[in-house]
Amino acid sequence: MKKGLLESNPNTMTKVIKLGVFYMLSFLFLLAAKPALGIGIDTPTIVSGIAKLTGTIKIPNGAKRDNIFVKITVPHQISGEFVKYKAVVDGTGKFSVDADVETTVSFVHFSTSLNPGKPLLVKLESGEVTRLDIAYNSNSDVENIEVTPAMNKNDMTRYFDLIGEMIQTPPISKAEPLYDKSTDHFLNYAKSLLSEILAVAKNDTLISKELKEVLYDDFRLFFYKGSVFDYDAAMTANYGRTNGDKNKKPVIQKTDRSYYHFLRDFKLNDPQYLYAVTFLEFQRKVLLNETLAIPQIDETDIPIWLSSTKAILSDLLGFNSGPYYDILAANAYGRQLTEEIRPLSEKQKQNILNYWGNGEIAKILFRKNQEVAELDKFKSPAVINDASKIAPDKIIQKIVSKHKGKVILIDLWATWCGPCLEAMQRFRNTKAEFHGKDVVFVYLTDGSSPRKLWEEKIKGIGNEHYYLDDKQWRHVMDKFEFEYIPSYLLCNKKGVLTNKFSAFPENEEVKAMINELL
Question: Which InterPro entries did the record assign (predicted)?
Fold first, then answer.
């Protein structure tokens, strides 16, 4: 990842997988575009819909045709999560996917098992069928693409490469100490650095002008979300990069809500943000920020919640009404549904009906609630285990002894690790299949995960959790020779380690590993 403002968690020794930058970017930047140049997109609107993607995958004669599959990742801007779909390519090369969508047009991340490192940007329309035919050569490179409705081919193939180039672009100016400067100085520095990065996209001659415009908006959201929103983390990172004394910690000035006046520059009432996938991540930052302190929605009547929220945000955003606030309220419910995996209460359902009636936002939330209600039947409550008095070399031993007679899958993760969270989401339904069986799922993290955020995240994960200190974490990582997360340990019923691996494989592979030990 680019060194500078985009670097995070400088004090943790944990590494994200080497492909993490590309993977996370592919996951976060599934963008759309504004009208013109054959893209033909109107102002996006919210809809509880279904879109179909069909097509063919053609490979040279004689090439192995077994076990080819396609994957798409769809951004759900209202419920606030990325939803993945996988479809097997049959013997004739055909595939078909029906995907839930939450906007009239969704741009999705598309990849195949033939060349997962070269994803495509593909447009889906609610209630319509998108046809995608791809021909690969003998090196598994894309040789030809045909798509209906038509889409700019360079936008499809070049988009993710361009984002990678933007992330890797080194800053023109040398990193300077910012931790001892004013917050306005930092914000001006950040704006200048962002301009340097956006110039990479501006100078690109292949991607359409319309897609660039959306890219500018979305990258700004990504940049501010990861590098500016958390001032304390940004200054700690800056101190680590620019100060020679690694044993000291900087005294970082406290910020208040006025720090977030930069939100006004985004003009967040613009409905085009529904095409910017980072928007749903940005909204999560707004809802969880401790300085802004927006109240949880829980069972509060929506107009009352909105009144409290507007009192906090209106001066910072520059507006007191508009679609943004309705989307934020929906996102607040979405956090409960998609992160805590907690179904709506009867009071919440009534609040939603009272405010949105039978509108599209209500339909989306109730559709998501049905899915969550099914998962909730098999979810175990999150149990926090006190690890403070356990010696570093006894952590795994303690876990194994607590769960004798059960198969144990230990997951090393962090709240900031995109691949970790995505793996958990992918594994939800498969994990539910082991409910009531002799299997226990244990999750380890360290201080790089903010404690409060960790406590929120584990509500939706459930099962057994340990919050390790630096020595405990480093011992586990070193003992099992893990270089990055997510990483996993699998023990049989006798407590014997039978497998260890990094990066989450396919669900079926992990399922088979566990079943072999039952």
Answer: Redoxin (IPR013740), Thioredoxin-like_sf (IPR036249), Thioredoxin_domain (IPR013766), Thioredoxin_ResA/DsbE_sf (IPR050553)
Q: What is the pLDDT of residues 98-109, one digit of tens each?
A: 999 999 999 899
Strand partners of residue 147: 132
- CB atoms closer than 10 angstroms to residue 261: 15
Query: Do residues 415 and 453 lie in contact, with contact meaning Cβ atoms separated by under 8 Å?
Result: yes
Q: What are phi and psi of 225, to 5 degrees?
A: -60, -45
Q: CA separation (Å) from 28 to 44, 53, 167, 444, 473?
A: 19, 20, 13, 25, 28
Tell me the C-alpha distance between 459 and 489, whole Å. 22
**Cα(481)–Cα(472) distance, integer angstroms:** 14
Other C-beta atoms lying within 10 Å of the C-beta of residue 304: 12
Omega of the bond leading into 486 within 30 degrees of 0 (cis) = yes
Tokens at 322, concatenated: 């508009």
Burial of 497 (0-12, 13-18, 19+ CB in 10 A): middle
Tell which phi-psi region holds residue 181, choosing left (phi > 0), alpha (psi between -120 and 50) or beta.
Answer: beta
Per-residue pLDDT of 493-515, as tens digits, reads 999 999 999 999 888 999 999 99
Please choose, from the candidates 242, 282, 239, the residue with its C-alpha nearest in 3D space to the C-alpha of residue 262. 282
Partners of 145 in beta bridges: 134
Q: What is the pLDDT of residue 23?
A: 37
End-to-end CA distance of the chain: 41
Q: Which residues pair with 466 in a beta bridge?
A: 385, 444
**Cβ-Cβ contacts under 8 Å for 179 (sequence gap 6 or more):** 235, 236, 238, 239, 242, 243, 250, 252
What sign results for the dihedral spanned by CA atoms 412, 515, 504, 96? negative
Query: In 4-44, which ranges are E strands?
Result: none
Centroid of chain to Cα 304: 30
Full-model pTM: 0.84
Bridge partners of 101, per DSSP, are 49
Name residue, tokens 């499809």: 156
Q: What average pLDDT does range 250-277 have in this prediction?
A: 93
